[in-house]
Amino acid sequence: MKVVICGAGQVGSAIAAYLSEEGNNVSLIDQNAELIADVNENLDVTGIVGHASNPDVLYSAGTADAEMIIAATYSDEVNMVACQVAHSLFKVPMKIARVRDPSYLNPAWGNLYSRDHLPIDVVISPEIEVAKSIANRIRVPGAFNIIPMVDGLVQLVSVICRQNCPLINTPLKHLTAMFPDLTIEIVAIVRGSTKIIPNSEDEMLAGDEAYFVVSTEHLTRAMAAFGYDGQQTRRVLIVGGGKIGTRLASDITTSMKGVTVRIIEADMDKAQHASQSLSGVTIVQGDGLSKEILEEANVGKTEAVIAVMNHDESNILAAMLAKQHGCERAITLINSPSFTQLVTNLGIDAIVNPRAITVSTILQHVRRGRIKAAHSLRDGFAEILEVEALDTSAIVNTPIREIKRPKDMIFGLIVRGKTIMTPKPDMVIKPDDRVIILAAHDQVKRVEQMFAVRPEYF
User: Across the strands, what pairs with 29?
Assistant: First the structure.
């Protein structure tokens, strides 16, 4: 597939790396010559210096032959115009744009992106996706990360295995006997800098981040099995009243009954804007790192503090201060991957990485064929895929034990209608099943082939 990516920042370069590693023909455009030089040196892509919405630059990047354009520059307007040019001049079938300004995302102007106006097929807002991700974690106390799959019937969850976790130091093959009625499958383990796609003999250790897929119906029991049986969140304090903070507050107040929200924001203008745009939310104007301000916001009686300021260091400090004041749970926004391990060692309960969330969201729309959803895990070492099986797929009506698959691939759960099943060696995948699979990034193409149409159907 020929793909043109506009913007060689963290998101654009990460997407370029993913797609080029899978053998796609990728061109990457950016005005910054240093970024493009770095791309040309380290990635198997064609880096082009130029303005991303310029027709000549887009043409030189091969847009006339492209199947997809992903516009992820720092400018909403450039992203929009790049998609318009790609549509009008080069007839590119799939156009994805990152858009951040809330005004462009106002539902009142929803017709803006129709084919008759700005023909963008997928509009992605990092702020909306990040706020949604944080809200999901608040709903499930103890979840380091949580992503709904298969129309909400299944949840992908990651948790930190604490010293009191009943499941540590136990081979995974014994977990079924321990919890025979629990529809759950452990699919990945992160141990410091080591990423593990486990087999039945592997064990989870204290300090590990464990990823599992579980029936939504069994989610509460699964969290309890990992030692997380905490009370539901009723009081939330958000440190940072910018785009993410205000969006998160709005999501919580509209979708979570009985939850009170406070926001601390140092900037007077942002605090006033949050006060005017949010109903039923208390705004405290002041420094989120100040002991007096935190006490004014009643941090000690708050179940969850979410730090979403502009600087990683400030977010980490705010989360640590909140924990010291007695807050039960601290979630912090982290942009730099180098801080991830540090944060977990400091006792902060969960981190949110906007770049990783944006990349994962874009990948969902890049995947094609029978892959209905794709989520990238921790720096892209693996992807969790939701794949639809057709009666023409190569692996249908074959027992799982007989399916030839790479070692870096795990069957998670199988969803048949409303029935959710853990995979067994003698289980047969049937047409229309939704299959949850974890695969190393370099094995995603192999998964696509496994679910492709069998040759005899041509």
Answer: 6, 48
